[in-house]
TrEMBL record:
Name the UniProt record assigns to this protein: Cytochrome P450 4F22 isoform X2
Pfam families with a match to the protein in the record: p450
UniProt family annotation: Belongs to the cytochrome P450 family.
Cofactor: heme
Species the sequence originates in: Octodon degus (Degu)
Length: 473
């Protein structure tokens, strides 16, 4: 810096004057000032870290891998990770402290009483945490799953009509139709190849994607029979997001997008976005040509799909959702709707295959409903007449929850029932899997068999665990 200052003073012809002393002193002072500012900031960060660590001392932690990695990579969402997690739960039953690397502490909540204060706090006090959802952002944008604050509240209100029974009821026809396509495929598969087993997950994923594409876009791609670019892009994106979680070196965006996976992710995102944007634009054009009244008249007796609901949605000020907002919500529903349900359904079938006696009971329950019917389709009202089947589905979701973790960042101190405090700024992991396997909440909850042998289901919620069902709430 000093030679540059000298050169500058030389150019200005001020080199040999008293001004040089002032200029050099001012420069040195400002350098010193900047240095102390940086030092102060560093001390403040260290102090805040030290204080947080002290405040976190009251939380127990399982042994770390090492000081650098902390607990990173120890409890991945695979079979081994989940089994290791169960072992930890034998000794720690409410809140665990884990370290993602040397300086990022996380509190893992594994008991409903400890989860409640975090999830019942307002969205401003415990917003969704960006760090763990950020891999989905380029695909899902600011849809409900990833948005926060005012945008989330506004969209949540605008989307409420999409969950009205009148909108959902007609979807039963679509679900029946898609399940029938899958069953026909299975029969053909078994007939042609005479094989006794095949991977059901793939078939169920296609069935859920087919249902969603029809419910969200009214679009029939026949994807259960022949793969479409759009559907294979969604399957690819879901796989890539999971794979990225396992590869720490792919966490920084600038490395990821240079890798082969990152390039495939970008390409697949483009395909998905192009499809959604085209549907929205075509539909908006038709809506503006016909006008809302005529449009709704034409829809009478037909199924109103998710895009229709979003296009017609208006807030209190009469403001509509933009095309980009609609795209984010539709892409979010396609992801959230297929990934969760295909995993959930696959585990239900796994459990029923493991316990043929319960499978038979479910079959009898359904056959009883179907007695004397011409069409072998389940109807909306039938769903409440299947207590045993519902109980099996709920118990299977408890054992194998499709979403194992959700995360929140506490922007204020949050008090736990035992008086301990979650310090402001900490990321909390609501461990759904851990909670569902917490021995203090579910004693003797080994598997579906032990659960179903226990009791008849609650009449209100069909939950097999009476002490934990809605009746005890
Ligand atoms: C067994 C099935 C399902 C399970 C286990 C499941 C699980 C979850 C969980 C745990 C969250 C909370 C995420 C968080 O707060 O961080 C969530 C949010 C969400 N799910 Fe699902 N889900 C299922 C089915 C579906 C379906 C079928 C759809 C749509 C078609 C859907 C759409 C959404 C959306 C839009 C959100 C964000 C809601 C918000 O933050 O306001 N989910 N889901």
């Amino acid at each position: 810096m000093l030679p540059i200052t000298d050169h500058l003073l030389d150019l200005l012809g001020l080199e040999k004057t008293a001004f040089r002393t002032y200029a050099v002193s001012a420069l040195l002072l400002s350098l010193l000032f900047s240095f102390f500012r940086l030092l102060l900031q560093f001390v403040q960060i260290c102090w805040a870290f030290y204080t947080t660590c002290r405040r976190l001392r009251c939380f127990r932690q399982p042994p770390r891998k090492n000081w650098l990695m902390g607990h990173l990579g120890m409890y991945l969402p695979n079979e081994k990770g989940l089994q290791d997690e169960k072992k930890v739960l034998d000794t720690m039953h409410d809140v665990l402290l884990v370290w993602a690397g040397p300086v990022l502490p996380l509190l893992v909540l594994v008991h409903p009483d400890y989860i409640k204060p975090v999830l019942s706090a307002s969205a401003a006090i415990a917003p969704k945490d960006e760090f763990f959802y950020s891999f989905l952002k380029p695909w899902l944008g600011d849809g409900l799953l990833l948005s926060k604050g005012d945008k989330w509240s506004r969209h949540r209100r605008l989307l409420t009509p999409a969950f009205h029974f009148d909108i959902l009821k007609p979807y039963m026809k679509i679900f029946n139709q898609c399940a029938n396509i899958m069953h026909t495929k299975w029969r053909r598969h078994l007939g042609e190849k005479s094989v006794a087993s095949f991977d059901m997950f793939e078939h169920i994923s296609l069935m859920t994607l087919d249902s969603l594409q029809k419910c969200v876009f009214s679009y029939s791609s026949d994807c259960q029979e022949k793969m479409s670019d759009y559907i294979s892009a969604i399957i690819e994106l879901s796989g890539l997001v999971v794979r990225r979680q396992y590869r720490l070196h792919h966490y920084p965006n600038f490395i990821y997008y240079l890798s082969a996976d990152g390039r495939r992710f970008r390409r697949a995102c483009d395909i998905v976005h192009r499809f959604t944007t085209e549907v929205i634009q075509e539909r908006r054009q038709a809506l503006s040509q016909q006008g809302v009244e005529k449009w709704l008249q034409a829809k009478q007796g037909k199924t109103l799909d998710f895009i229709d609901v979003l296009l017609l949605a208006k807030d209190e000020d009469g403001k509509e959702l933009s095309d980009e907002d609609i795209r984010a919500e539709a892409d979010t529903f396609m992801f959230e709707g297929h990934d969760t349900t295909s995993s959930g359904l696959s585990w239900v079938l796994f459990n029923l295959a493991k316990y043929p006696e319960y499978q038979e009971k479910c079959r009898e329950e359904i056959q009883e409903i179907m007695k004397g019917r011409e069409l072998e389709d389940l109807e909306w009202d039938d769903l409440t007449q299947l207590p045993f089947t519902t109980m099996c589905i709920k118990e299977s979701l408890r054992q194998f929850p499709p979403v194992t973790l959700v995360s929140r960042r506490c922007t204020e101190d949050i008090k736990l029932p035992d008086g301990r405090i979650i310090p402001k700024g900490i990321i909390c992991m609501v461990n759904i899997y851990g909670t569902h396997h917490n021995p203090t909440v579910w004693p003797d909850s080994k598997d579906l068999g032990t659960a179903l042998d226990r009791a008849s289901p609650c009449r209100r919620c069909a939950w097999p665990w009476h002490s934990r069902c809605c009746a005890s709430a």
